[in-house]
Amino acid sequence: MPTSKDPDAAAVDVPGLVLSSATMALLVFTIIEAPTYGWGAARSVAGFAASAVLLAAFIAWERHAAQPMLEVGLFRNMRFSAASGAVTVSFFTLFGFIFLITQYFQFVRGYGPLSTGVRLLPVAVSVGVGSVAGTQLAVRAGTKLVVTTGLVAMAAFYAWVAATISATLAYGIIAAQMVVYGLGLGLTSAPATESIMGAISRAKAGVGSAINDSTRLVGGTLGVAVIGSVYASVYASRLTGTMPAAVPAPVAAIAHQSVGAAYVAAGKIAALGHPALALALHHASTNAFLRGLTIGALVAGSVAALGGVLAGLFLPAQPATLTAYQAEPVQTDQHAPD
Fold it and tell me: What is the CA radius of gyration of the chain?
């Protein structure tokens, strides 16, 4: 290991950092802007193509860099790649869930920020329970089974949400759904993290930890971008088709921004003496939001289901043994004084 006096200790892979940042920035920007310009528009297609080129350039650079920011060779180990993918999928669905459910609670159900946070507690508690249980079950039943079960539970949660969501759904059902999701996330994240760390030697533990954190950040970022953009596309399309024709064009433009903005616009219409029109706009925006939430849930559930298939195919049946984890000894500084 390099010491503090070694010039390589402070080496920074600047080209790799620039390429990775540019890739994520362009990809997320393209996804976010796609609902406005169209997913198949030339601007969107060019953005996705450029992101792919930048990603390929990043991988090529990292493979030949003397001090790579990311050791891409680690992903040749399918155990490492599958576990990293499971963590990425988990946080993709988590951040997508948070994006959708907070809007549902605050706008559609009218809960305040604190009330919304309290109603999200079933997720937090069940994640903690699932994480503890997942680690123990992985030793007994195997990492493959536990992680796959967790991802399937998350997919089932989104399917359940898509099938039942409404503006008046009882909170008891919502809480039960959140428990299913939280347990699935807990069962997935802890054993998958162990699998990531168990797939590499102790000398590369820092690398494994950094990649584990990166998968969470990438998954969460893409979760908000993808699910948010899918929801926005469906919401705008649905609202356009169901909005009353009597709604003035400036008000309609405001309503298309978000369901919250639509509710504010409906309130202003009512204050001007048009309660029936305001109520129609309120109903149209609510239905458009619920439709967008439903499609967003189906997308997130499909991603979770795909993650479950990959975990079932490539994750090891059992956690790594201590011997395998320590296969490569930690290097020490042989020039240190006695």
Answer: 24
Take residue 42 and report the two structure tokens written for it.
């030339």
Q: For the chain, 338 residues long, give each residue's pLDDT as a single digit of tens.
A: 444 444 444 466 788 889 889 999 999 999 999 988 889 999 999 999 999 999 999 999 988 888 887 778 778 877 788 888 899 999 999 998 898 899 999 999 999 999 999 999 999 999 999 999 988 888 888 888 999 999 999 999 999 999 999 999 999 999 999 999 999 999 998 888 888 877 777 777 777 778 878 888 999 999 999 999 999 999 999 999 999 888 888 899 999 999 999 999 999 899 888 999 999 999 999 999 999 999 999 999 999 999 999 888 888 776 555 434 444 444 434 444 44
How many CA atoms lie within 13 Å of 65's alpha carbon, on the beta-carbon side?
22
* AA letter at 163: A
Question: What is the SS3 assignment for 226-278?
Answer: HHHHHHHHHHHHHHHHHCCCCCCHHHHHHHCCCHHHHHHHHHHHHHCCCHHHH
Q: Given the structure tokens 């399918």, which residue do they identify?
A: 78
Q: How far apart are CA 66 and CA 179, in angstroms?
A: 47
CA 175 to CA 81: how far, in whole Å?
Answer: 33
Non-local (6+) Cβ contacts of 71 within 8 A are 62, 204, 207
> What pTM was estimated for this model as a whole?
0.83
**In the chain, what is the greatest distance between 2 CA atoms, to the nearest angstrom?**
88
Cα angle value 306/224/95 (rounded, 5°) = 75
Please give the Cα distance from 277 to 254 (Å, whole number).
Answer: 15
